[in-house]
Amino acid sequence: MAQVLFKNCSLFDGLGSELLEGRHVLVEGERIKEVSDRPITASEAEVIDIGGRTLMPGLIDAHFHAMAADPDFAKMEVMPRSLLAQHARHLLEAALARGFTSVRDAGGADYGLAMAIKAGLIKGPRLFYSGRALTQTGGHADFRALEDHSAFCFCGQGSHVFGVIADGVPAVRQAARDELRKGATQIKIMASGGVASPSDPIWNLQYSEEEIRAIVWEAASWRTYVMAHAYTPEAITRCVQFGVRSIEHANLIDEPTAALCAAEGAFVVPTLVTYDALHRFGPDLGLPAVSQEKLKAVRAAGLVSLEILKAAGVTIGFGTDLLGDMQAHQSGEFQIRAEVLSPAEILRSATSVNAALLNAEGELGVVAAEAQADLIVVDGDPLADLSLLQDQGARIPMIMKAGSFAKREAL
């Protein structure tokens, strides 16, 4: 197997809080073979002296939408699937160029996109996909206009790209089983109102206890978990009590609810950059007026929620939830979080913490022997300056995924 030896590294291993100076990392095939504080002898290896630059794990975005070609979900639902797939290719390749070697898709991506990446047809990150999100009638993934009549929604065929409408325990079991059959690595449900959907206020509670528990059971039977869109304390509390493992957004969380998340070991994945981008660019990019109004209710609470989560000791994942052309601001999540969290906390969220969320602890998100060789070289110290991760990867001269270079510039 081919070997690559990175020498003279300042190493962020994905676990610590400081750079480890003078490290050497040997990659063999798709995996990291050795990490050492002494020179490594490997006569067959290609040697790359990175001259003290930072070597760190590839970044992981735990709330990504590969199929999100436009801020208006209703418009996307009637786009030809072939056109959406081309948008997805563009968005995935751009994410990898920013240093994101893995993404968890939160609704819309499917087996075909994952296989296209594996086959090299798309030069994108590893794709952990949810398939279609499960939503109740009138829920956050029901994008039908208010004047649309329910009679036009054939059983289970509501929102055909991003979500599936399923009401009642038998229906949600069938919908979850179908997404798992098609290879979903986790199941996404809508458990509260949201910004992008037309009919549900933010405070709306979605899915009954029986429905959520049934979906959780189905996911557990496949040795995976449920991630839930939820904003309010009541919505989050219900989800955690009913067995949901990953809470998305959580902008309106309060202290008792955060304490519950911490006690139950639930992950929370804030997505603050999407609210900033929607506020700044959404109207010009076609965000519907009803969504602009709902945005006001959650945007202002974003940083406060991060403070509450940190104080409670909640395990905080890293996600962005950006739509369409706004995905160019993906790395802006680092800078927003820096108002509350330390750079080391933020980078751990985007590496080892997210790897644990993906059930890939020790496999992704770390620079350690036997881990996948998903690595990026940063021209400087991101623990001192998170802006090095901005500008579409301009200061990330090397990106390696599974031992192969996705980007390689002269150092």
Automatic annotation (TrEMBL):
Residues 54-394 form the Amidohydrolase-related domain. InterPro entries: Amidohydro-rel, Metal-dep_hydrolase_composite, Metal_Hydrolase, Metallo-dep_Hydrolase, OTAase-like. SUPFAM superfamilies: Composite domain of metallo-dependent hydrolases (SSF51338), Metallo-dependent hydrolases (SSF51556). Gene3D superfamilies: Metal-dependent hydrolases, Urease, subunit C, domain 1. It holds the Pfam family Amidohydro_1. GO terms for molecular function: hydrolase activity, acting on carbon-nitrogen (but not peptide) bonds. This is Amidohydrolase family protein. The lineage of its organism: Bacteria, Pseudomonadati, Pseudomonadota, Alphaproteobacteria, Rhodospirillales.
